[in-house]
Amino acid sequence: MRQALLLRGRSRAILSADQFNVGITPMRVSLLEFSSADQPLLQSWVSEGGIPRYMSRYAPRSYKDGTWSKMHALWWVIVADERPVGTVWVERDTNGARRGELGIFIGLSGSRGIGIGSKAVLLAEQFAADIWNVETVNLRVRATNERARRCYAKIGYHDTRTFQKVLQSGERIDVIEMEHRLKMPNQSTDPTLASVTPDAGHQARHP
């Protein structure tokens, strides 16, 4: 009920993918611009969705005390059939290169492994390319998170390096950096996104 209420009255949809099937059931994935009102939902996903098992950062780097830099991060709520299920963001390379760094997680366990994350990543990439002229997107994923790695590889990401990271607990883990070279306009990685177009308010919200 709380999730349904969070969507009521909001007209913040930015991009919407064509429907795809989960089994025999069609589903539509959309991205809504993240707002401060979404913070309780974010915290509930982190605490209840087992997210710390898969990743140590749940928001853009600039996120602190409920605020973040919209100049350096594009951030959305992932919505599947009108239900918020997770979050995705792209952070801008501060060195001026046409690169972005992607972060994503699906907060509802029942919405994982059915294609929602793949669609959300492709939508986020497309928007970052449109707004910032991003040509390459990279991400970091734990080596043990095989399902996420398969998801990224399926949509065009490839491994670039492996390194170790020390968690706050002192544990050392292997992390894989992956990269995706984006295609030119009208050469979408996923054919189901070929007809994706921004909503009418898209350019006004992001000058």
Architecture overview:
With 207 residues, this protein is α+β, with helices and mostly antiparallel strands. The chain has a domain at 2-139: Gcn5-related N-acetyltransferase (GNAT) (Aminopeptidase). The protein contains 5 helices and 10 strands. The chain has helices at residues 2-7, 39-48, 116-132, 146-154, 202-205; strands at 13-16, 20-22, 25-27, 29-33, 73-80, 83-92, 99-106, 136-142, 158-166, 172-181. It has an 8-stranded mixed sheet. It has a two-stranded antiparallel ribbon with strand order 2-3. The radius of gyration is 16 Å and the shape is globular. The termini are far apart. Mean pLDDT is 80; it is low at 1-11 and 186-207.
Predict the CATH topology of the domain at 2-139: Aminopeptidase
pLDDT < 50 stretches: 1-11, 186-207
Under the CATH scheme, the architecture of the domain at 2-139 is 3-Layer(aba) Sandwich
Strand content: 25-35%
Gross morphology: globular
The beta-strand count equals 10
- The strand line-up of the biggest sheet is 1-4-5-6-7-8-10-9
The CATH class label of the domain at 2-139 is Alpha Beta
Task: Write down the overall mean pLDDT.
Answer: 80
Cα separation of the termini: 34 Å
Order of helices and strands: HEEEEHEEEHEHEEH
Class of secondary structure makeup: alpha+beta
This entry's quaternary arrangement is: single chain
Q: Calculate Rg over CA atoms.
A: 16 Å
CATH superfamily of the domain at 2-139, called what?
A: Gcn5-related N-acetyltransferase (GNAT)
Biggest pleated-sheet summary: 8 strands, mixed
Tell me the number of helical segments per DSSP (H or I, 4 or more residues long): 5
Provide the helix percentage: 10-25%
